[in-house]
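Researcher: I'm preparing a figure for a lab meeting and need a structural model of a single chain. I don't have an experimental structure, so a prediction will have to do for now. The sequence is pasted below. Please return the structure as tokens so I can convert it later.
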Amino acid sequence: MPYTPTDYNPYDFANRRHIGPSPAEMADMLEAVGCPSLEALIDETVPPSIRQEQPLPWAPLSEGGLLARMRAVAEKNTVMTSLIGQGYYGTITPPAIQRNILENPAWYTAYTPYQPEIAQGRLEALLNFQTMVADLTGLPVANASLLDEATAAAEAMVMAHRVAKSRATGFFVDANCHPQTIAVIQTRAAPLGIAVIVAQPEDLDPSAVFGAIFQYPGTYGHVRDFTDAIAALHAARAVAVVATDLLALCMVKEPGAMGADIAVGSAQRFGVPMGYGGPHAAFLSCADAHKRQMPGRLVGVSVDSRGNKAYRLALQTREQHIRREKATSNVCTAQALLAVMASMYAVFHGPAGLRAIAERVHFMTERLARALKAAGARVEPAAFFDTITVEVGVGQAGILAAARHEGLNFRKIGRDRVGIALDETTDETVLVSVLRAFGIDGVPPHRAQLGFPQAMARESAYLTHPIFHMNRAESEMMRYMRRLSDRDLALDRAMIPLGSCTMKLNAAAEMMPITWPEFSSLHPFCPPDQAQGYAEVIADLSAKLCEITGYDAMSMQPNSGAQGEYAGLMTILAYHRARGDAQRKVCLIPMSAHGTNPASAQMAGMEVVVVQSAPNGDIDVEDFRDKATAAGDRLAACMITYPSTHGVFEETVREVCRITHDQGGQVYIDGANMNAMVGLVKPGEIGGDVSHLNLHKTFAIPHGGGGPGMGPIGVKAHLAPHLPGHPETGGTEGPVSAAPYGSASILLISWAYVLMMGGPGLTQATRVAILNANYIAARLRGAYKVLFMGNKGRVAHECILDTRPFAEAGVTVEDIAKRLIDNGFHAPTMSWPVAGTLMVEPTESETKAEIDRFVTALLAIRAEIDAVETGEIRAEDSPLRHAPHTVEDLVADWDRAYSREQGCFPPGSFRVDKYWPPVGRVDNVWGDRNLFCVCPPLTDYSRAAE
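Model: Understood. Here is the structure written out token by token.
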């Protein structure tokens, strides 16, 4: 009998590694769904009228092939010692932090901590970050990070506008701010009617502005005391913002001591690689009086059901989803993973270590300035921390070339100066090379001599909390990071079935290249010929994303989905202005839209008109038509999500697009649900003019516990000339992010994903995502009502379970969400887009076994609800109300109306590897009434327990 070789391909990444169910399991699932084939299911789910005609063409790479390709591309980048500064610096990532945080799926696969009971580890790390920022800036409250320094500055401007008592309409910007910061502020100010005044600090007229921002130290190195300028602003009832540097603040007077109201900056140089622009954690701190106006997330201290200390997100968490166009910001993500890294850097080094690093950098700079002055060079400023500017006249090109010959990048300033910014990685060898570029041999000896006045030296203590004084032996650090990660439930433990968030596999092979020096060590403003590898990545990823979406051009600049929305709307408005249609400001947004949609439109200066939903959740087309017609030549755009936020492919999408175009408007299709479209539907072919893509959802960038993200926008050809520009790369429009390509280093992850999946694999992933969602809906039929379905009874990639009827028996959607923790699961999206419901998205990466475990858990919970409904047990006495159950519950005296077994080991939970939440149900109201957002003293821990 002839030998028959196997047709199994172990290197088929898409079908063997990324997609969870096997072919045999898919057959069983299709039987449960009631469909003869996967293609038949897709035909019943996705309207034929919108299906793309041509398949995605490129062939897949194996993991080995991908890494070889990545190595070849990495070698096209040239790693130089970049002393450009301008907000980006070389840093040393402690290997313990790189291995245990950045490269650890327990940290990078976690979701945003909206369920605090299963996020206590990263919430503590983020509270450490807030404490670090508050201490160093000298202001009492800091948020849990923002996207980058430039956008943090823009958020601070808008925050100042809200809190200032001055009626002035101007905002003063120190000309010594980083150029990208000035440009982003100008972009954000224009649609809001804020007049930006860029000038030297001595030219400030406090009566003409509601606020001002100063750079400290300045982009050219200046260390100035802004105390008097801030006092003058306060006398005029205006608000003072200081953009600052955390390492410098270990030595120089802090903004709080100058009287600043708000401080912003980047924590990048606290152990986070430059990565050609990001991701990095920005920060914003403020006076206590303004804390309720802060943008972004805020971690606070509360108590759990036993009175024990517990952390949670406080105050304005996801407030834009509630307040919509009245939201103060559209920020719905942050840079949690990078904020955790920066906080661990501070824990690792402690205040003494940080001061030592700061002193080393500063004294190196002082030696450099001394040597240059001794050689006759004109060096500015007189007071500096780590950055100096050297006047070189007509020799600028020669100096820059000599520096590159030495393996160095200086900053080109104007036509006759160069800037040099030293950093943690600067050693004696670098110092010698810098001077050699100027034709100077040797360096002067070290002296503990300040390069700024003694009066500017910091006098206050910082990082006094015990967490920053722990034993810094690597064994202790490693155990601390492990303890925190063990308190969390991330994707490496269990399925996270969040609707609209697409918690899919973040494959190890996709993640590996981001820490290679050829990618991680590049400065975002290095000469383009040193970043040819990045150029290839960005060009090829852009081309493939255009192929996937049906658009003609991509901007990789937005570094979050919400920022992508904003960038897309600003592109539309620029297009209208260029055509002489500046009056087009109306934006039609369905009630079902993501809350960031109306918030982004408001930020863009648009007038939001809400469109009603039909009873089945679809857009009410007649209401849409009426409002589009009423807007007429004032219609700028509509914003729709497709498939809809309710998890359905609406049949009327082409008609909605046609109505908008007939009135001269543009169609913005929110890409949040692109995971149901890749390979099946191209938004640019069904009427879309612009879409943002959540690369941290559909394209496999991990969520990192609440960031990083990337939200590039695709546009049709007529909009391409109006995409965001940047001071470093040109363009007619202003930038929306600090770096030209946003958080460029994580683009590698999405590029690796599309290369290993190939066109057919991406399409199959979409099909299986739809199968998994329909399988859950079918398995739960009869136990839970699925709220919205398409015309043929199918859902898209997510389904909404209606839990509102259980409220009559006293069981809330929160009870169900917390009970799922006992089963070892993160809850689905709770109470959005419909209050009192759960939106479930399994993604294509989950295996049938894990989905079945989830279904088992939900059915067991339904049985517990039945017991409440039939009067067997009261809701307040049931395991639903007491959930989640902790080890403390297990070992304490048991006087509950159900058994320990039922409470702690419900169906679906693992017995050997059971996840135990570290705290019981967190009291949200207590936390907001007793707001505390920095590390509490140890005595408070015991008081909370009492």
